[in-house]
Amino acid sequence: MNIGPIDMVYCWCDGNDPAFQERKNYYLQQEKGTHDSDSVGNHRFADNEELRYSLRSLTMYAPWIHHVYIVTDRQTPRWLNTDYERVSIIDHSEIMPSELIPCFEASIIERYIVNIPGLSEHFLYGNDDMFFGRPIGPEFFFTSEGMPVVFVKYFEKFKKIENDSDFAKKYELVSTWMKSNLNSWKLLYKQYKKHEFYVLAHTIDGYCKTLFQKTMARYNESLSDSLKFRFRDDRDFSRALLGLDAYYSGHGVLKIIEPPSFWKKHVYKPKGYSWICYCGSEDEKTRKQIRRFEPYVFCVNADSHGRSEDKRAMRVFYEQLFPKISPFEIKGR
Questions:
Q1: What is d(CA 87, CA 34) in angstroms, rounded to the nearest whole number?
Q2: How many angstroms separate the CA atoms of 81 and 272, rounded?
Q3: pLDDT of residue 37
Q4: DSSP count for the chain of H helices, then E strands
Q5: CA 109 to CA 215: how far, in whole Å?
Q6: What domains sit in the chain, N to C, each tagged with a CATH number?
Q7: What stretch of H or E contains 222?
Q8: Which phi and psi (to 5°) does residue 102 adopt?
């Protein structure tokens, strides 16, 4: 497989930083009462140094990644070795219009990562709480022709949307984040007339810069109104738009992720079986599942009901999985 260099892009913030909290609280006050607590709660922005361990996992299991870009707003991880030639901090001001800064909504920031100077044509994107769980190659994310593999899953409540009436009915049943997926579905339906409703598997995704730019241009007018949002909003669009547009236009390959059967999960795990993409919360169940199924890629979401002891337990778990300090770190920090 020879598709050229493949970079890795992370979005990261330190929600524990007083300056970050001041900016966030100021704009929340300006938009008082318009956001639910789950969308803007501190758990969405808290930093448990997941990025440190994600970079260790990258060093262990995906050393072929060419360069790492960390996209952030006036922050740098205190432990990051910024002298390391394979990492760059990209401030929001380098890639986003000034009127959108500060922005606390990942789906808005994600639209601009393609503007990173020097970003390779093929790149991976992930949040800082996503990890490589075992040796993995470029072919996991791209075909031999360089097309991205689009990892999706079915939403447990419905798999199809029949018409506008059905859309409106289902729209009222779901969370703010799921509404952003439905908004993306609606744009895709207008373009391709596909009734299936997929959401992205919560995992590291592969992208082609040229396709990314074409998709953003195709839906630019529809997306422009959502640029006023600094926080997660019902009217926003998820990045499922990017992956599914690549697939529907014939420039991507769809891979539907399904969890193991009850038998595999609780009784017998076949030899050599691994969960492809796993997502869990900061709890003991998640730690057990990751150890048992050794997923290729996994995500550990912060829980709005998480406790400080859960955070501490996860740090111990990360240290056990990824004990070796990586070149991305300053020794002793």
A1: 37
A2: 36
A3: 64
A4: 13, 11
A5: 16
A6: 6-321 (3.90.550.10)
A7: helix 220-224
A8: -80, 150
